[in-house]
Amino acid sequence: MTEKMKINITPLKKKGFKSENFTFVDFKTNKLHQECFDTLTKIKNDIDNQNLSNKEKIIINKIFKSYKKAFNSEELAEDEMILNNHELLEFKKINKKDFVRYLVYRYKYNKYSQLKILDEYPPCINIEPTSVCNYRCVMCYQADKTFSKKSSGFMGNMSFELFKKVIDEINGKIEAVTLASRGEPTLNKELDKMLKYCEKKFLALKLNTNASLLNEKNIHSLLSSDLQTIVFSIDEKNKENYEKIRINGKFEKILKNLELFNKIRDTKYNRSDKVVRISGVKINKNQNLDEMKAQWKDYADIVAFTNYQPWESSYDNPVNDIDRVCGELYNSMYVWWDGKVNPCDFDYKSTLSKWNAKDKSIKDIWNSEPYNFLRQKHINQQRSSIEPCKRCISTS
Ligand code: SF4
Q1: Going by DSSP bridges, is the β-strand pair 204-209/124-127 parallel, antiparallel, or unpaired?
Q2: Which end of the chain is more exposed for a tag (fewer CB within 10 A), N or C?
Q3: Quick one: which atom of ligand 1 is closest to the CA of 374?
């Protein structure tokens, strides 16, 4: 039996608003910021002739003002924003006719959870094609047998009919859609059909996969789709360490699959069409980003670590003293394979869920009384009365 990697990272509690927003913009040397500001200026000068809602106009004006402040090296207020480096790269790729749409979406995505603004739809939605996974990673809820065993009732695949219902409603309302959550999406046999159904509908369609089931057919399906981002979840640089984290995973297989993916990407598709990211969860102090980059840089555009949250023990973690409002309640929503809707995947057994997307709209659920009750509990600094929020470290 494979020896498991020890989790020895203390989960980070994000506290308060950090002044990460304070960015000096050197317009002389940063060409992309300059281009972005020029485009924004044109939009701003013509704002009354554009078919924009009041909300959209306010956001555009706010970003314009933020850029002017950044230009003068003034600190930005909490509700102000300029594009970060990652967004500037997206700006470069985006069709300029979609620029206002993009700015509005990024503002909502970045700011609404911080400012606790409730929009009529969540800025981001996660739809899981399946909750089944072929891996049992040490830091994942799939390691909890009461969740992942077949007889638990939690396992299953989303029907195309339900997928279509959700997509039809959110088309034009939500821009950021992630096809993944608790399971491995490539296990759903209808994934190709789902991807095709999403075509031309979203600005930020993303899929996360462990890459273990890639083959020629599904690689073409991913690369020919409208996915803006493909994330391969890989946490280590070599066989020994990888297989200690990604239980059931075979390092050689991943390597082979990524080689095939890149061969097809290079020969049949435009490389700049999508962002491919290799993303690991840092659960052990010995995981090293530079070594990860050295191993994987030729297989992806970005190699990164995300912060560890103790998902594998959501319901057993000690009760903590965090009393800040959880940003997930304003930012994201999760639709499970069976239609159950949940505010987050930390609560992977959906104890917070009161809703099903089969019989209610996403908009009605997001604005429903039980959802607002949960938000109010957090606002009143009473998250310690809610299970599993009282064991969770998520803030904004
Ligand atoms: S468990 Fe509660 S605090 Fe944690 S992410 Fe979910 S809603 Fe937020």
Answers
A1: unpaired
A2: N
A3: 7
Q: How far apart are CA 142 and CA 348, in angstroms?
A: 9
DSSP letter at 206 equals E
Backbone angles phi, psi at 47, to 5 degrees: -60, -35
Q: CA–CA separation, 1 vs 18, rounded Å?
A: 44
Of the residues 334, 347, 349, 396, which should be mutated to test ligand 1's pocket, given the most ligand atoms within 8 Å of the CB? 347
Closest residue to atom 3 of ligand 1, CA basis: 389
Spatial separation of the C-alpha atoms in residues 354 and 213, rounded to whole Å: 34
pLDDT of 30-89, one tens digit each?
A: 788 889 999 999 999 988 888 899 999 999 999 999 999 998 989 999 999 999 877 887
Report the pocket of ligand 1 as residue ranges, CB < 6 Å: 326, 328-329, 343-344, 346-347, 388-389, 392, 394
The region of weakest confidence among 60-69, 85-94, 142-151 is 85-94
HEC string of 88-117? Answer: HHHHHHCCHHHHHHHHHHHHHHHHHHHHCC
**What are 250-274's pLDDT values in tens digits?**
999 999 999 999 999 999 999 888 9
Atom of ligand 1 nearest to the CA of 389: 2
Question: SS3 for 346?
Answer: coil
Q: Report the DSSP beta bridge partners of residue 303.
A: 278
Instruction: Give the span between the Cα atoms of 374 and 389, in whole angstroms.
Output: 10
Residue 23: pLDDT over 50: no
Measured from the Cα of 322, ligand 1's closest atom is: 3
